[in-house]
Design brief:
heterodimer; A: two-stranded antiparallel sheet; B: alpha/beta; Rossmann fold; 3 domains; seven-stranded mixed beta sheet; globular
Chain lengths: ~375, ~525
């Protein structure tokens, strides 16, 4: 018996949109098995993982708080991904955004006006843009692979941040901890819900998602990017510039990640430290695909991904499971999604024996 | 032929093959006698290819029987077919360009170790059939006709008793076609049966002893083509008479709309063709055709014309008097260029987008389609609807995906999209390639109507009949050079055929190629 994948002539549209739900369901089932095999009561584990984190107002605020950078970055990435521009370095662009925006906050330690937030956000966007412009330039000028370049720049960004908080920007009163001074209150996003950490960064993210939706679905530029992603030769035939597609695709992700970086340091963290993101830039890649590269889908996917973060933390505390549980669930979700997508586009055929004729491909 | 000659070499009974969307073959009967050249005639989509795949073991029939020399058989795979003695020459060749002829042939003959002996056999067999091949030449240096001979010799070395030829003449010059026919007749005289797939009625009349006509997956007739007229066979093939285009003499006083002045371009592809010093003028109100066997620089010329590849010299391409050689496709379109490429899916249209979205692909300059950077979907939809209506596109409406359309209907949509923008210069590549007869006539008439409305049109096509039908002047491309354009009424198929081997009056001989015989 041999397995073979055969392309379906017309993949089901409904299943394309349902496959994230299928993937989520399979992740739950697989999680059930994981918990059971570790000797934990699966029901209690599920309660700790999926219910506990959102059973209070504070928990709910945390859910939205963590979903904000994810939806913001994923929307930016989706613009590029739809055009086959693969920006994998959002994590680094986020860090640069935090450095630029945070640097501005540190430059005005006595700020009293909330208006400082606007240049901070713009500076953050500029930082992300700058970091994304490097792979975009190398790709359009030298045809360097943007996946590799953008990914490698993540580590450069991490080291740059580390240098700053260990060196020039270290808080002199900070007991030698690798962190900057705290930002002035005026340089922090205002809190939306009292006693929670949910702040105006969420509104920024929602605004960006709306702009992303308008760009992708309604704008002519967004249309050109979609054509470039679906049929490269058709884009060239129509005269849509391939270089511009790469630039817009990279910069959209870079700007979004940079703004998300400001959201972290001007939000829950309140200063620059050597680690400002629990991998939002990478998790956003999963969010973008689970959300079908569609801004509306991305909002829901970011809430799901945020729940996995919170659930992972809760599982560490309540069940004393290792912190790797978050990554495990993220990985399972992506794995099942990709698997479901393969089955949406292909059917599995069991072949009895004997290799198929070589010439079949020519048919 | 001996005692077996009363039994057909191959007989099909009630062959049926159903694909998810279409019944490709429905109750097909077919019998080929030993030594017979049997035509399978039908339009694109009539089910010819499916039937051949079944005979050659590539596809399995859902119902029906295959009899080989009186025995019922199952053809499990192409290998099984070859073991039986069935050989097939495909429309698209499967040769490695960087290997020699002998090496290519050896790859198809498992167990063949002795290349020197094989080379001698290739020389022997090819000489016996009147078309000598040098087994040591690299395939990329061969003409298309020679490559086809490699494929045929590869089949002949297996001593087939049935040879399937799939549209073999679509890539050949008229002279090469004559040569091929001689080879096929000799083979048939030696007792080999030949299944000859084509939609070209004159060739079938000249070559074949019997014909089976298919339409929409069914047999609509069998005949002796030598006793039929072209129109009687056409009626069997398409169910009505062949449509003819109306064609008046071109106006001679039109301004020069497209001028190529010493266009040279080295190819990006190592096995592509370099364009050399191409000169051509196309006036308003005329259709100029470029004939030639594909692979002689047509692809490269089209990219240079559309702007998908830009040139160093701005003056090499002039559109309505504007030097456009360095302009990108969008800029050229703004000057008034329309372009219908050869590949419909993936270049002329995005397969998974709707017709409406595909209308936007090139028509976005039409007033009101894009306002403030946003797409005005209602306007785009209206434009798509107009293209669908005016050009009789059979589809599920403007929301249908491009890939859901048949080749002919998608081509009508693309031609419609370009024509509705009222181009001053229209460049069309292979306008009716793979398009059924009815849609072909419609497209040709649309081109002629556009010409009458004073557009300048350049048509690049492999179909000589088509060029002679619609063009006012015809030029020929060979080895990256372009011949002078001859007035259609002053030339004929034979002369154009000679030009296709690069031998037109005043042709510059290729340095170092003088010794090589011209590719037939």
């Amino acid at each position: 018996m041999r397995l073979r994948l055969e392309a379906r002539s017309s993949p089901s549209r409904a299943m394309r949109y349902l496959s994230p739900l299928v993937a989520a369901a399979l992740t739950v089932v697989a999680g059930f098995i994981v918990f059971s095999s570790m000797g934990r009561d699966p029901l209690a584990a599920f309660h700790a993982f999926f219910v506990q984190p959102v059973s209070s107002l504070n928990g709910f605020a945390e859910l939205v708080l963590k979903a904000s950078p994810l939806m913001l970055i994923a929307t930016g990435l989706a613009i590029g991904y739809r055009a086959n521009v693969w920006n994998i370095g959002a994590e680094g662009q986020l860090i640069l955004g935090a450095i630029f925006g945070g640097g501005l906050a540190l430059a005005f330690p006595g700020a009293e006006s909330r208006w400082l937030l606007i240049p901070m956000v713009l500076a953050g966007a500029a930082g992300g843009l700058l970091w994304a412009a490097i792979p975009a330039f190398l790709r359009t000028r030298f045809n360097a692979n943007e996946i590799l370049v953008s990914l490698m720049l993540v580590y450069v960004a991490t080291l740059l941040l580390s240098y700053l908080v260990h060196g020039p920007w270290r808080d002199p009163q900070g007991f030698n901890f690798p962190q900057s001074r705290m930002f002035a209150d005026a340089a922090l996003y205002p809190i939306l819900l009292d006693i929670t950490r949910l702040n105006a960064g969420f509104l920024v993210a929602l605004g960006a998602v709306a702009c992303g939706w308008l760009f992708i679905e309604k704008s002519f530029l967004g249309y050109q990017m979609r054509v470039a992603g679906l049929a490269d030769a058709a884009a060239r035939y129509a005269g849509f510039s391939a270089g511009r597609t790469v630039w817009i695709g990279m910069l959209a992700g870079g700007a979004a990640a940079g703004v998300a970086g400001v959201g972290e340091v001007a939000g829950p963290i309140g200063q620059l430290t050597s680690s400002i993101s629990p991998g939002y830039g990478f998790a956003a890649i999963i969010v973008a695909f689970v959300g079908r590269l569609n801004p509306v889908g991305i909002v829901f996917a970011s809430l799901l991904m945020s729940l996995l973060y919170l659930g992972g933390e809760s599982a560490q505390m309540q069940l004393r499971l290792p912190s790797a549980i978050t990554g495990l669930f993220q990985g399972m979700l992506l794995f099942f999604l990709l698997g479901a997508d393969v089955l949406v586009h292909y059917r599995v055929r069991l072949l009895p024996r004997a290799p198929a004729p070589r010439d079949e491909a020519a048919a | 032929m001996g005692a077996e000659s009363h039994a057909p070499r191959l007989a099909l009974r009630g062959i049926r093959k159903v694909y998810p969307a279409v019944v490709a073959n429905d109750g097909i009967d077919l019998a080929v006698m030993p030594g017979e050249i049997h035509a399978v005639l039908g339009e694109n989509g009539a089910g010819k290819s499916t039937l051949m795949k079944i005979i050659y073991g590539v596809a399995k029939p859902d119902a029906g029987e295959i009899h080989w020399e009186g025995r019922r058989i199952e053809v499990a795979s192409p290998k099984a077919a070859r073991t039986l003695g069935i050989g097939m020459v495909f429309q698209h060749f499967s040769l490695f360009e960087t290997l020699t002829v002998a090496e290519n042939v050896a790859l198809a003959l498992p167990g063949e170790r002795d290349l020197a002996a094989l080379a001698r056999r290739i020389e022997e067999v090819s000489a016996r059939y009147g078309s000598p091949l040098d087994p040591h030449r690299l395939v990329h240096s061969l003409s298309v006709g020679e490559r086809q001979r490699v494929e045929i010799v590869r089949c002949l070395l297996l001593q087939p008793r049935l040879l399937i030829m799939d549209e073999p003449t679509s890539v050949l010059t008229p002279q090469a076609v004559k040569k091929l026919f001689e080879t096929l007749r000799q083979l048939a005289a030696e007792g080999c049966s030949i299944l000859y797939i084509s939609h070209k009625l004159d060739e079938i009349q000249a070559l074949c002893h019997a014909a089976t006509v298919l339409r929409a997956g069914r047999v609509t007739g069998t005949c002796d083509p030598r006793r039929e007229t072209a129109s009687s066979m056409a009626r069997m093939m398409i169910g009505k008479d062949l449509p003819v285009c109306e064609h008046a003499e071109a106006r001679a006083d039109g301004e020069v709309r497209l001028q190529l002045d010493g266009l040279s371009l080295p190819s990006e592809d190592p096995f592509g063709t370099d364009l050399k010093d191409i000169r051509l003028r196309v006036h308003a109100g005329e259709i100029v055709g470029i004939a030639g066997v594909s692979g002689n620089g047509q692809q490269e010329l089209l990219r240079a014309l559309s702007g998908e590849v830009t040139l160093e010299s701005a003056e090499a391409v002039a559109l309505t008097g504007v030097a456009a050689g360095r302009l990108h496709p969008g800029r050229r379109r703004r000057i008034g260029l329309g372009f219908v490429p050869e590949e419909r899916l993936g270049r002329g249209a995005v397969p998974t987008m709707t017709l409406s979205d595909n209308a936007l692909l090139t028509a976005h300059r039409v007033v009101g389609m894009v306002r403030g950077g946003l797409v005005q979907h209602a306007r785009v939809r209206a434009f798509a609807l107009e293209a669908i209506d005016r050009f009789a596109v059979m589809c599920g409406g403007p929301e249908a995906e491009a890939r859901s359309l048949s080749g002919g209907n998608l081509q009508k949509f693309i031609v419609g999209r370009e024509l509705l923008q009222a181009p001053k210069v229209l460049v069309v590549s292979q306008p009716t390639w793979g398009v059924d007869v009815g849609a072909s006539a419609f497209i040709r008439q649309a081109l002629i109507d556009l010409r009458n409305a004073s557009a300048a049109i350049l048509v690049i096509s492999e179909e000589l009949d088509e060029l002679f039908e619609i063009c006012d002047r015809i030029a020929v491309m060979a080895k990256g050079r372009l011949s002078p354009a001859a007035r259609t009424r002053d030339t004929n198929v034979e002369e154009i055929g000679v030009w296709m081997s690069g031998l037109w009056p005043g042709a510059v001989p290729e340095p170092g190629e003088a010794a090589r015989a011209p590719a037939p």
